[in-house]
TrEMBL record:
The keyword Magnesium applies. Pfam families: MMR_HSR1. Belongs to the TRAFAC class TrmE-Era-EngA-EngB-Septin-like GTPase superfamily. EngB GTPase family. This is Probable GTP-binding protein EngB. InterPro entries: G_ENGB_dom, GTP-bd, GTP-bd_ribosome_bio_YsxC, P-loop_NTPase. Keywords: Cell cycle, Cell division, GTP-binding, Magnesium, Metal-binding, Nucleotide-binding, Septation. It comes from Candidatus Thiodubiliella endoseptemdiera.
Length: 199
């Protein structure tokens, strides 16, 4: 994989759209259910161990966190969603904020949806996928923690998701393991296509 994403550095963290950077350039979002391995995926793709904070407490990321690649390109860590211990009112506010972000953020160039290979396509995953589809956002689904199950089970999960998304032209899916660096080149190549506008 190229080092396109190694220069990533923390830019800012904000609880709502009001604090976001100016709506210009290109952003690729990382979204996923809490504890699906989102922060680990960001650290793996940027070849940095501590860029995105990996918490032992799922649901800790409750802000939009922006990482700058250069003056035109950003990676965005969206709040983790769907974790049972997060108050219902907070979950609902996340949904409102995220819906607004998808609807109003013009600089969105692509999305990486992070799903645990052992539990893909939860209702929250589907909600996020629907938002991406509704705005024609190119999307890469990564099935994380693929090292934690046998190859046959991982392949079955991959085929299940492939069947579920086969009618969506801008959505692709792959296996991914931050621990084993599996799928890193494939994810990097897809990110390259998301940012192709500014190459």
């Amino acid at each position: 994989m190229s080092n396109n994403y190694h220069p990533a550095k923390f830019l800012l963290s904000c609880p709502s759209l009001k604090g976001c950077p100016p709506d210009q350039g290109y952003e690729v979002i990382f979204a996923g259910r809490s504890n699906a391995g989102k922060s680990s995926a960001i650290n793996t793709i940027t070849l940095q161990k501590k860029l995105a904070k990996v918490s032992r407490t799922p649901g800790r990321t409750q802000h939009l966190v922006f990482f700058e690649l250069d003056e035109d390109r950003r990676l965005v860590d969206l709040p983790g969603y769907g974790y049972a211990k997060v108050p219902e009112a907070v979950k609902k506010q996340w949904q409102i904020d995220m819906g607004e972000y998808f609807a109003k953020r013009n600089c969105l160039a692509g999305a990486v949806l992070v799903m645990d290979v052992r539990r893909p396509l939860t209702p929250f995953d589907q909600m996020m996928l629907d938002w991406c589809i509704n705005v024609n956002l190119p999307t890469q689904i990564i099935l994380t923690k693929s090292d934690k199950i046998k190859k046959g089970a991982a392949s079955n999960a991959l085929m299940k998701v492939k069947r579920a998304i086969e009618s969506y032209p801008y959505v692709q899916v792959q296996l991914f393991s931050s621990l084993k660096k599996q799928g890193l080149d494939l994810l990097g190549a897809r990110l390259d296509t998301f940012f192709a506008y500014v190459d």
